[in-house]
Design a protein that fits this description.
Elements: E1 3-21, E2 27-47, E3 52-56, H1 68-79, H2 81-87, E4 89-95, H3 106-121, H4 128-138, H5 142-147, E5 150-155, E6 159-163, E7 170-176, H6 183-194, H7 202-211, H8 216-222, H9 226-232, E8 234-235, H10 238-244, H11 246-256, E9 262-265, E10 272-275, H12 279-292, E11 298-304, E12 311-315
Parallel strand pairs: 1-8, 3-4
Antiparallel strand pairs: 1-2, 1-12, 2-4, 2-5, 5-6, 7-10, 7-11, 9-10
Helix pairs in contact: 1-2, 1-3, 3-4, 8-9, 10-11
The chain binds cytidine-5'-monophosphate.
Cytidine-5'-monophosphate is lined by residues 26-27, 29, 139-141, 156-157, 183-184, 187.
Length: 316
């Protein structure tokens, strides 16, 4: 195989609870992650030049070693040096559609696609759990992005338990193009304000993380009850991001009054999504928000929940 093209979907957090600190400096989380149809395309080609080259259609995305997709390729070359020598370098191109720095795992899903693409290109035959293990070295959301769909994520976010898929539920996604929230800032600020309520002992942390499996959100998902899911949407990081970013708070309030079933910030923000009853309702919600907030910096998408992560569209 010389090349492959992959679709790399974004994710939203239907549920994000911060339950404690970890010895590695991260947080213990209990999350429910969900893939959405909004996606980037990643093309990977074997190249005669003995190096990794990255291109991206988005001018603000770095194409050097700081890009998580580049790091994913570098990780593969370090893990499988013989395959790298045998197959030569890599030309990677990212066609970005997912808003950047949005809490939608855009960088993580690109890295996940690169891991999967190189696995195919070099014929490594890695299992999903081997790919997830490599993904966890790159970022907490990368393992989820590989298989995607709907899943409970605990630990740093890398311990996954798949849930039955939620297809054909439409959402409106809203993000101010020029507004970015730093994920480390959001978690650090949360720790400063709320660490007194963190669960301290390991056993209670494990019990709390396990409780999400039998919680109301999971029940809603198992029953495919969109109204219940909408009621159970939760994100602890809203407590620090919304007070700091009045525009995001206003957007959140506008979506909450738009007739949608429920609304929530995704990840560390600043994107906000609204869960809708139908595609038609999603279009109406989008129009309502567009009429209420006329700022052209606001990007709005109608998209839907999907049952998969990285998807190979072609290979030659
Ligand atoms: O793992 P990732 O690089 O995506 O995480 C970005 C940042 O988010 C981390 O540097 C950390 O500050 C914060 N984080 C955290 N606990 C987690 C996941 C992320 O504190 N479980």
């Amino acid at each position: 195989m010389h090349s492959c093209s992959l679709i790399a979907p974004a994710k939203i957090n239907l549920y994000l609870e911060i339950i404690g600190d970890r010895p590695d400096g991260y947080h213990e989380l209990a999350m429910i992650l969900q893939s959405i149809a909004l996606a980037d395309q990643i093309d990977i080609q074997a190249s005669s030049i003995d190096s990794i080259r990255l291109r991206c259609n988005h001018p603000q995305i770095p194409t050097d070693k700081s890009n998580l997709a580049y790091k994913a390729a570098a990780l593969m070359t370090a893990q499988f040096p013989e395959a790298f020598i045998k197959h030569g370098g890599l030309n990677i191109s990212i066609n970005k559609q997912i808003p950047i720095s949005a809490g939608l795992a855009g960088g993580s899903t690109n890295a996940a696609a690169v891991l999967l693409g190189i696995d195919l290109l070099w014929n490594l035959g890695l299992t999903q759990s081997e790919l997830e293990e490599l993904g966890a070295k790159l970022g907490s959301d990368v393992p989820f992005c590989i298989a995607g769909g709907t899943a409970i994520a605990t630990g740093r976010g890398e311990q996954l338990a798949p849930l039955p898929s939620l297809d054909n539920i439409y959402i409106v996604l809203a993000k101010y193009r020029s507004l970015e929230v730093s994920t480390p800032w959001a978690y650090k600020t949360y720790r400063q304000e709320f660490s007194s309520s963190y669960i301290q002992d390991r056993e209670s942390l494990a019990t709390r993380a396990a409780a999400v499996h039998s919680g109301d959100m999971v029940k809603g998902i198992l029953h495919k009850d969109t109204k219940e899911i909408a009621q159970q949407l939760h994100n602890d990081l809203e407590k620090v991001v919304l007070p700091e970013y009045p525009l995001v708070l206003q957007l959140r309030e506008t979506l909450a009054k738009s007739g949608a079933l429920g609304t929530m910030m995704s990840g560390s923000g600043p994107s906000i999504f609204a869960l809708c009853e139908s595609q038609q309702q999603a279009e109406e919600v989008k129009s309502h928000v567009r009429e209420t907030i006329t700022d052209q910096d606001l990007e709005l998408f109608v998209t839907k929940l999907i049952n998969h992560g990285i998807h190979v569209v072609s290979s030659t």
